[in-house]
Specification:
Elements: H1 5-28, E1 30-35, E2 47-51, H2 58-61, E3 71-75, H3 84-91, E4 94-97, H4 104-115, E5 120-122, H5 140-148, E6 151-158, H6 160-163, E7 176-185, H7 195-206, H8 210-217, E8 246-249, E9 252-255, E10 261-264, E11 270-271, H9 278-286, H10 289-294, E12 297-307, E13 312-324, E14 327-332, E15 336-339, E16 343-349, E17 353-358, E18 361-367, H11 371-378
Parallel strand pairs: 1-7, 2-5, 2-6, 3-4, 3-5
Antiparallel strand pairs: 6-7, 8-9, 9-10, 10-11, 12-13, 12-18, 13-14, 14-15, 16-17, 17-18
Helix pairs in contact: 5-7
């Protein structure tokens, strides 16, 4: 297949700005690159690269050393607003995908890119890790890998989560990221591998727990607001089992119900609570689904609907949100009663932007608080 005029223009722009991107990323974090001899950053042959998704900018860090910029799969919601709409449509090579769903249009786009000689990059978790460890990988990724018939390169990203935790509102100093590249599966071996075997190989290559990595490295990442925002992901107090009673300020964490106090240190560890890291805390709170389901949750946010036919969004305005007994009630700019079991493809983007489909309408709420608890009421994947 022949590259379009638009793709050629994008290639030129990406080559032009590449030195600036490298400078920007080196200012963002100190990067350590490890690769096997088989991985050639100057290679011209197409490949499929898969990486674990640890923080916002790994989507820039991971491909930037390769000479030919890949087509990257990105959330469809990013194509509905500026400036990301312009960047993804007109500058970068990106293909939209609805998070949490199998999208045949995305697969066709990636197959077409490979036929034109482009590499492709997917972060198959479909979402940045909330707690520092690699989570569910969409099964459709492994089927696609077999169809593409190209080498599969994996990049295991370590240290990114603790350098820029998804939930955090405060910055860390001494941000360090380690990128580990290898050819996980050669294209010649793909015909002899089942989808399940490909799944096993990829899951093993991409799994990372930043807290296990930190035990080895013990990297200090100091800051003045290390704890702020942690209530975006931790919603049950392990001491009194109350829901959404955690508050953070500076480096301190407190439960307003039982007054348990703790802090987060420069190693990213929590002191003063039963669990010293979000990953272990989350494993415990996942088991308390009944406590969460029986809770009453009140929050607020800005309500939007999104149309993917023309990649547009409509703002309705401020809504108050009340959850009780399996029903999400919205009042304000719109009055809606939604049964959570009828909400489909729910996902949190950024820190606490909650989107889902309900009665064939795609809703998007920029929540003021409590995104993780609302997401968990609807699904357990993330």
């Amino acid at each position: 297949m022949t590259r379009t005029k638009k793709e050629k223009i994008q290639d030129f722009i990406l080559r032009l700005i590449h030195p600036l991107v490298i400078l920007w990323m080196f200012l963002d974090a100190k990067i350590t690159v490890n690769k096997t001899d088989e991985v050639d950053f100057k290679r011209k042959e197409p490949y499929l690269m898969l990486a674990n998704h640890t923080f916002l900018f790994d989507v820039v860090h991971v491909p930037m050393f390769f000479r030919i910029p890949p087509f990257i799969v990105a959330s469809r919601t990013l194509f509905t607003k500026q400036p990301t709409k312009f960047l993804l449509n007109d500058i970068a090579h990106c293909i939209p995908k609805s998070k949490g769903t199998s999208d045949t249009r995305t697969a066709r786009g990636l197959i077409g890119a490979v036929k034109k000689g482009y590499p492709v990059l997917i972060f198959p978790e479909g979402n940045t890790t909330f707690h520092g460890d690699t989570k569910h990988i969409e099964h459709s990724t492994f089927k696609l890998a077999k169809k593409l018939k190209v080498d599969i390169i994996t990049c295991n990203v370590k240290g990114g989560y603790l350098s820029k935790p998804r939930w955090a509102t405060g910055k860390r100093k001494n941000r360090r990221v380690e990128l580990n590249y290898e050819i996980a599966i050669h294209k010649e071996d793909l015909p002899n591998l089942s989808v399940e075997q490909i799944s096993k190989i990829i899951n093993e290559k991409l799994y990372n727990d930043d807290y296990e990595y930190q035990k080895e490295k013990m990297i200090k990442r100091p800051g003045k607001k290390l704890a702020e925002g942690i209530e975006n992901i931790l919603y049950i107090c392990p001491h009194c089992k109350s829901v959404n009673t955690l508050e953070s300020k500076g480096n301190m964490i407190k439960c307003d119900n039982c007054n348990t106090e703790g802090s987060m240190d420069e190693y990213g560890l929590i002191n003063g609570f039963k669990y010293n890291n979000p990953a272990d805390w989350d494993k415990w709170q996942r088991e308390k689904k009944k406590i969460l389901y029986d809770a009453i949750i009140d929050t607020s946010g800005q309500l939007f609907t999104i149309s993917f036919e023309d990649d547009s969004e409509k703002l309705f305005g401020k809504v108050d949100i009340h959850y009780e007994k399996g029903v999400l009630n919205l009042t304000g700019a719109q009055n809606l009663d939604m049964v959570i079991k009828d909400m489909y493809n729910p996902v949190i983007t950024l820190r606490r932007d909650f989107s889902f489909t309900y009665k064939d309408v795609y809703y998007y709420i920029k929540l003021d608080a409590f995104g993780a608890s609302l997401l968990r009421l609807v699904q357990d994947k993330y």
